[in-house]
């Protein structure tokens, strides 16, 4: 008998299991720490120089579920629930980029890290770039992924406001009496291929959206970062020109928020920044095309890691 005969006799093999958050995170751990007086959740894995992953508005650490363990092959990775999000504390404060950024700095202090490589997506990219501009001693490098907060020209202010309204409206629809269907619609809007949104991801976000503590601050978050952002916190051309840390700007051609041309211009304003445009992906390239994302971001991080950017170890 040939090998083909054996295969025919044996019949079809077992189907591969459906992709799961928990299968993606095998080998990682979930930690809760006191961070500046706020209980803070993180998903962590790996060893080496620290990489901190920051999600978008109304997001949570599961944004990075398909990339944590991949990056952990070379780095100590921390995917955070930022202040006011996920399972991290949600104080009734006036939310701002500065407040979220200071919480990230407090997290670095809590884990004993002097400086970290920051990878931020959407709102997380805004926070990461703000930290790179205002606290460069705490940032080893910056990766901005479809980052928010860009206001590069006077004419661009209206575009920034229009994108903010679009994001705010989509988020409010999901948060106003959240249902699984509304949550799925919000997640599918983020993707180029809505089929990548799994029932498990919908359920995880639905359970976070229906937590009473998140419902109590959700309106504050949406207002702060989409309808009424502080002008002094916007990523203007001058602020981007002042970033002196190694930077990669990663965008997607099908991003549903800020057009890729704006991201490309931002990369030219940041001295020495690298630029990468991904095809066939939406607002979450790290989730939608994780293999390509890991190849690009992993290569960048390895290229800037080392003694020249020594960051200290994690506690």
UniProtKB/TrEMBL annotation:
Pfam families hit by this protein: Abhydrolase_1
Molecular-function GO term, any one: catalytic activity
Residues in AB hydrolase-1 domain copies: 50-290
The organism's place on the tree of life at top rank: Bacteria
InterPro entries, A to Z: AB_hydrolase_1, AB_hydrolase_fold
Name of the protein this chain belongs to: Pimeloyl-ACP methyl ester carboxylesterase
Organism from which the protein derives: Geodermatophilus ruber
């Amino acid at each position: 008998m040939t090998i083909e005969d054996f295969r025919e006799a044996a019949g079809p093999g077992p189907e591969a299991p459906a992709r799961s958050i928990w299968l993606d995170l095998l080998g990682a751990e979930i930690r809760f720490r006191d961070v500046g007086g706020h209980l803070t959740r993180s998903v962590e894995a790996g060893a080496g120089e620290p990489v901190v992953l920051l999600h978008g508005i109304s997001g949570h650490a599961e944004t990075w579920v398909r990339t944590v363990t991949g990056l952990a092959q070379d780095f100590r990775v921390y995917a955070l629930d930022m202040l006011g999000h996920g399972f991290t504390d949600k104080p009734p404060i006036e939310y701002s980029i500065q407040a979220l950024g200071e919480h990230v700095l407090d997290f670095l202090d809590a884990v004993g890290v002097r400086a970290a490589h920051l990878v931020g997506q959407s709102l997380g990219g805004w926070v990461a770039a703000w930290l790179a501009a205002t606290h460069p001693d705490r940032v080893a490098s910056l990766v901005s992924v479809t980052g928010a907060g860009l206001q590069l020209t006077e004419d661009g202010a209206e575009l920034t406001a229009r994108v903010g309204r679009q994001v705010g409206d989509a988020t409010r629809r999901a948060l106003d009496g959240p249902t699984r269907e509304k949550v799925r619609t919000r997640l599918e809007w983020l993707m180029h291929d809505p089929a990548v949104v799994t029932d498990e991801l919908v359920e995880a976000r639905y359970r976070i959206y229906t937590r009473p503590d998140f419902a109590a601050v959700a309106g504050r978050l949406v207002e702060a970062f989409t309808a009424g952002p502080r002008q002094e916190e916007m990523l203007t051309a001058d602020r981007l020109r002042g970033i002196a840390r190694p930077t990669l700007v990663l965008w997607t051609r099908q991003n549903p928020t800020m057009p890729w041309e704006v991201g490309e211009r931002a990369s030219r304003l940041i001295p020495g920044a690298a630029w990468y445009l991904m095809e066939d992906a939406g607002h979450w390239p790290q989730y939608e095309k994780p293999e390509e994302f890991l190849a690009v971001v992993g290569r960048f991080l390895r290229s800037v890691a080392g003694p020249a950017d020594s960051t200290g170890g994690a506690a």
